[in-house]
Amino acid sequence: MDYMSWAYGLIGGLMIGTAAAIFLLFNGKIMGASGIVGGLVDRSGASTWAERVLFIAGLVGAPALLGLVYKLPATNVTDKIGLLVVAGLLVGVGTRLGSGCTSGHGVCGISRLSIRSIISTLIYIGAGVAVVAAARATGVLL
Amino acid sequence: MRHLVTLFCGALFGLGLVVSGMTDTLKVQGFLDLFGAWDPTLIFVMGGAIIPMFIAWRIAAIREKSVLGGLIPLAPKTELDRSLVIGAVLFGAGWGLSGFCPGPALASSTFGGTGGLTFLAAMLAGMIIAPPIIRVFKAAP
Predict the structure, then answer these.
(1) Residues 6+ apart with CB under 8 A from B131
(2) What pTM was computed for the model?
(3) What is the ipTM of this complex?
(4) What does the alpha-carbon distance between residue A80 and residue A142 come to, in Å, rounded to a whole number?
(5) Helix crossing, A81-97 with B82-98: angle to 10°?
(6) In chain B, how long is the greatest CA-to-CA distance?
(7) What is the DSSP letter of B78?
């Protein structure tokens, strides 16, 4: 049992939830990563571009600054470029079509007891479990 | 002030993703590997994140406006539709294949090497080509 990893998970989770809570109560906004980024790149959120850019600057910049003084954990991402391109396209299209990702539906939606978000989260976790099982069985993932 | 809060929330979100282990794709895939060496860490991450947000929604329910003036967003009207279901299936498939979802892909972009940047570029491309696909789904009966 990897208790330290669970503890870090809980602490990191509380940080994520606190960020989402402040964003909601102070700015009146939902902290959903795919919505914030998606609205910027497809220009549907052009009127709030400054807020989107600043949020992403914090999201990218804070870990980068931490990395200057502390060795960050490896991402262990695969080196199969084709797999990453396919996965990235699926995540990009899927989160926009499904109106949210792990932060929007998984954190902000579930905590609001939104049926849509609960169903969405069950489906994307289920799809993820099925794909990992299939990929392991066929040797796509080791 | 709003902008400062936004920057702070983005930073806290990014640090939380790193601390929680969500930027480690093997940990995420370990959670999805229900029939293999299952790693339950993600349950603690989601549980930890939902606690403050659950309290925040309770506070939001008794106020109409946020502290800095914006209205508290209303719950979306639409219930389940095809877009939500198919979008979630596509997203889950990509999440399982790579171990990345949008937040961690951005948070790790400065230390995730070319693999992380490849995923990020493809994800942004997917978001750019999404609007016409969404229109097709909304229009079809």
Answers:
(1) A42, A44, A96
(2) 0.95
(3) 0.96
(4) 12
(5) 150
(6) 48
(7) -
